[in-house]
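Final report, results section. Input specification for complex C-07:
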Amino acid sequence: MNTMISEEIKTTKGTIVSPKGFLAQGIHSGVKKAKLDLSLIYSKKTALCSAVYTTNIVKAPPLLWCESLTKNNNKIQAIVVNSGNANSCTGDRGYKDAVLMAQTAAECLNIEKESVMVTSTGVIGVYLPMENIVSGIKKLVPTLADTEEAGINCATGILTTDTFLKSITVEFEINGTPVKISGIAKGSGMIHPNMATMLNFITTDANIEKELLDKAFKSNISDTFNMITVDGETSTNDMAVILANGCANNPIINKEDENYEKFKKALHIVTEELAKDIVKDGEGASKFLECKINGAKTKDDAKILIKAILNSNLVKTAFFGQDANWGRVISAMGASGVKFNPDKVDIKFKSKTGEIELYKKGKPLNFDEEFAIDVLKEREIQILVEMKEGVAEATGWGCDLSYDYVKINAEYRS
Amino acid sequence: MNTMISEEIKTTKGTIVSPKGFLAQGIHSGVKKAKLDLSLIYSKKTALCSAVYTTNIVKAPPLLWCESLTKNNNKIQAIVVNSGNANSCTGDRGYKDAVLMAQTAAECLNIEKESVMVTSTGVIGVYLPMENIVSGIKKLVPTLADTEEAGINCATGILTTDTFLKSITVEFEINGTPVKISGIAKGSGMIHPNMATMLNFITTDANIEKELLDKAFKSNISDTFNMITVDGETSTNDMAVILANGCANNPIINKEDENYEKFKKALHIVTEELAKDIVKDGEGASKFLECKINGAKTKDDAKILIKAILNSNLVKTAFFGQDANWGRVISAMGASGVKFNPDKVDIKFKSKTGEIELYKKGKPLNFDEEFAIDVLKEREIQILVEMKEGVAEATGWGCDLSYDYVKINAEYRS
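Structure output:
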């Protein structure tokens, strides 16, 4: 069931252990009542690591541990993740717990604890049940495997209120050598530009220099994970990380040539797909919104405008209500802080049913309300804005605001 | 039914026409199906005017008209307001309609159109039904009165999705001469710091210099109307305005003496009360939240933190769910952009039932969950945060996010 993305990069059936040299697993340790809640990704060889962390200044203890590793450019061999409890706002005791998670995994795997990243996601401000976690890690490590089942368990163990598993694998060749990149994600709620609440773990067997790995990863993130929003919140915990273990044995990617571009493009497919999946699974979301701004003065302007539109509760509730309320779009743009001339703006909404022109050169257009309802009935809708201020453009993704968002978040802790 | 606010300033039964020299009225003109939708405030003498407008760069045509008047320090004699249609994003035709509203009122009142402010609130992007508006103004002017009924009609005609009328009158003496200030407001939804979607009209018969009127009004607004939020949105239309016609004939307030301080304090009571009423009537709100930050480095820091907390959908849904989820409060603070040490922060929630300490010096506290539910069952709740970074403090007001917010805004246009 391979799908051609381009001549050279294919999405393929696979899991986080599809790239060579990776093992994984996910089990139930007892943080949650019954669901899988503890996952581990392991690389047989130490791997290069790029990571991006939340911009929230209240950072959870496990993130502080991970940052200390990546700041020192440590090679990484394992990532331990628990769901159900974020180990956040838990002070010194929380930090000791995070280190104990790394240490326990390191002992079981017979590696240095400084090569073990630790991540937690779930409720804030409750100490981790360390007995469950420690015995869970000891139980998990012997079951690490490179099977599809192990990969799926691992992807499942990182989820919280997610309603579906998020995973993608792509393959391509570097000078005739097959290389794979695979990613899994946890999203749902509290998703916002600037590396907000989500976990993204990406594995690749590509042989690539650290500097180029960093460059490719960070540029992809700014156009994918940082261009999605569910509710404008940034969490204390979340991060995106890629491990590259070189096990594909391709000729090393060490300059910005066509091999680097191919790697970057393949990685972009992975990060964009995971980013979109996170939004599609936004808490209570009934609509998937893609917002494209064209003709902006700068790309930054375009991105700020997109976030203002997609974070507006009034825009989001209008789409939930299937109402072609373009006035809320232009109003959100006007409040964004970006300078532009409203009298030049065009706004259209589009879905697979068709396109509705709503606003042209600062003037409302008459449109067929019945057709508009048909267009907005679809689950996937595009908001298309033409600024006529310049040539910059950007795209971002968001979702509507529904009764279920309120329900999920009013009842989450209990 | 007078209530003593302090020895010198009393809230009193009254309406927008309680200060001397003002007349008002509100009628049904046909913009809305049946409810009152057209109001007018008139001062027998031209009045000094201070006004603050939305920060949204997409400004509705009537606001552009008003700004042109106040920029030139025009004296104002009338304010015409329609509800049900915002005359926003309506381009040149919208501007001509706004001017025609001013002109029609001016002709009926036999005054200059440059002394007539015009305001509209309601749906965006639809041209005004000018036939109804023009004949409405002609019908309204002969019925202008200084009766309680006229004042209530005027306050009612400016409302949109509001569920109650917002009005307050205070009285005090300047060197033995009685002076009154009265205000009415339209709020509900799209309320946000920076003079967002609300209309506030204040009348006073005080005799005061323009410069001091401006100073008192602007400083009050930054601590009242600009410290409330319902959904973080800023609209294209809204504004706060005060007319001072001097009809009380008090000795003029022309320096920052105790008379000025008394005037400022009285005005503060009016603006704070209207601001709180707007939040209490936030769309779908079931909780009224007062957030106090103490011990911040600067007042600006405190204000930014308050807005971050009160605009967080996760915080708002937690209060709707009566969940003592202080983790979302500290997380919202961490994402606000303000620099602080989370390890010094204390967080408490308080209502008339009692107080719960939740977080102290960066550590979660054990608390009685049943008592917490009792505390959070109340309609009015305080979020108390101690930063221990400095001595600055601020207070702001917001509301929860409920199913009804989604319902109201998903169905508003239809």
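Confidence is low (pLDDT under 50) at residues 1-5, 190-196 of chain B. Chain B has two domains: 3-280, 288-410. This concludes the modelling results for the funded period.
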